[in-house]
UniProtKB/TrEMBL annotation:
<feature type="domain" description="FtsK">
    <location>
        <begin position="181"/>
        <end position="368"/>
    </location>
</feature>
<dbReference type="InterPro" id="IPR002543">
    <property type="entry name" value="FtsK_dom"/>
</dbReference>
<protein>
    <submittedName>
        <fullName>DNA segregation ATPase FtsK/SpoIIIE, S-DNA-T family</fullName>
    </submittedName>
</protein>
<dbReference type="GO" id="GO:0003677">
    <property type="term" value="F:DNA binding"/>
</dbReference>
<dbReference type="Pfam" id="PF01580">
    <property type="entry name" value="FtsK_SpoIIIE"/>
</dbReference>
<keyword id="KW-0547">Nucleotide-binding</keyword>
<dbReference type="InterPro" id="IPR027417">
    <property type="entry name" value="P-loop_NTPase"/>
</dbReference>
<dbReference type="InterPro" id="IPR050206">
    <property type="entry name" value="FtsK/SpoIIIE/SftA"/>
</dbReference>
<keyword id="KW-0067">ATP-binding</keyword>
<feature type="binding site">
    <location>
        <begin position="198"/>
        <end position="205"/>
    </location>
    <ligand>
        <name>ATP</name>
    </ligand>
</feature>
<dbReference type="GO" id="GO:0005524">
    <property type="term" value="F:ATP binding"/>
</dbReference>
Amino acid sequence: MSDWLIPLAITVATACTVLLAWRKLHSVSLWLAVGYPLKALHVYFTWGNVAHGCTLTRKRRRWRYTLDGLPVLGHASITLSRKRKIRRVDIDKPPRLGIIRPCRLGFRVNVKLMDGQTPDDYAARLSNLAHAWRVHSVRLISWKPGRVTLLATNGDPLATVATPVLSEGLLRVRVGLLETGAPWVLDFRTVPHWLNTGATQSGKSTLLNALITGLSAQPVALVGFDLKGGVELTSYGRRLSAIATERAECLGLLDDLICLVKTRMALCRTNKARNVWKLPEDLRPTPVVVLVDEVAELFLMAHKGEKDEIASTATALLRLAQLGRAFGVYLFVCGQRVGSDLGPGVTALRSQLSGRVCHRVNDPETATMTLGDSDPAALDAARQIPANMPGTAIVVGEDGRWYRARSVYVSEEVAEAAAQAHADLAPKWADLLTAADLLTVTDAELEALAREGEPT
């Protein structure tokens, strides 16, 4: 007996060693060659039971060869077996699965919707499917009439993010990774204004560092509002065209930005263009990205004497959000605590910031303020972000869907080095304000345009 046990043990040990080495050297090829076929068979063969357990089946009438009564043991079973006949019975019919297609992180599969089903029925069962298929997570990534596409991932792609920060075109920066394995790109041309919230040590500042690193190499003007006394953005001062660290300075800088918008509005009107991107390249002004850190400091009121100043600040910031996209001014607003208790100005500003990034927060109000107008599941996911994964956030971007994402870690030293290396690209603020010697629009025209909303 031992003659065959020893070779068997050696063979099993060798196979295990080879598989472990293969997984360490190139886990993707191991998944495609070994893991994927086994997983596909498991999904196909268990789909009927899984769909029934997730209440995704539908009753159908089918012809079956059945007994008249219940099967019993003993002599009675012989009697019943003679009474079998073909009849129509109710059976549970699972939705039809498409071809399971492998990808680097797992697999994706199309599922045909049955009568009366909607994509929401599957969105509510994603956790059940993940446990049934023995995978890390399942997401509904797209849908068409009568069909949904599910993506299953074997592991958490956000556990380690080593994606380098890259500039992927004007006003486009790759800052990290999405849970689908796709790169996380902040594209200001598509989503012009962003709200970035998060508690201390949540990764909010790391995302800002990554953004500055990517934008520093682009021909854009960076303007900073640092309400922490300048400790966050002053180190990047050589790349910033302007910076304000006190509320009074912020109000003055906001007035300058409004004047800049007026000048560009007049330039577009003179050339009969709806926005700066439809101007000839030789007339197109430099894009301006406004970085606001600790936005709550702009709205906090210590005494009633600050009420008028706060109202002016809120109005100017709201105007930039409403009109900025058409005239090349973009906002990236950050804050630890953003709630409706800060006043109606914050709520109005939030409605204009279509891009949302919610890191781990200390209070549910900030998460609700950031993600409350999106899928309720996004709020639940935001509350489950662990403290030991800084940089992880819930992102709502250009497609309107929410994703878990994680920004790559960029230290202050790396971001400062990038800012200094490209300091020559920072335009003078005075040059931006006097770049075009044209008639500006009046305040009344600006108010009318702000009431109408942002032009397209």
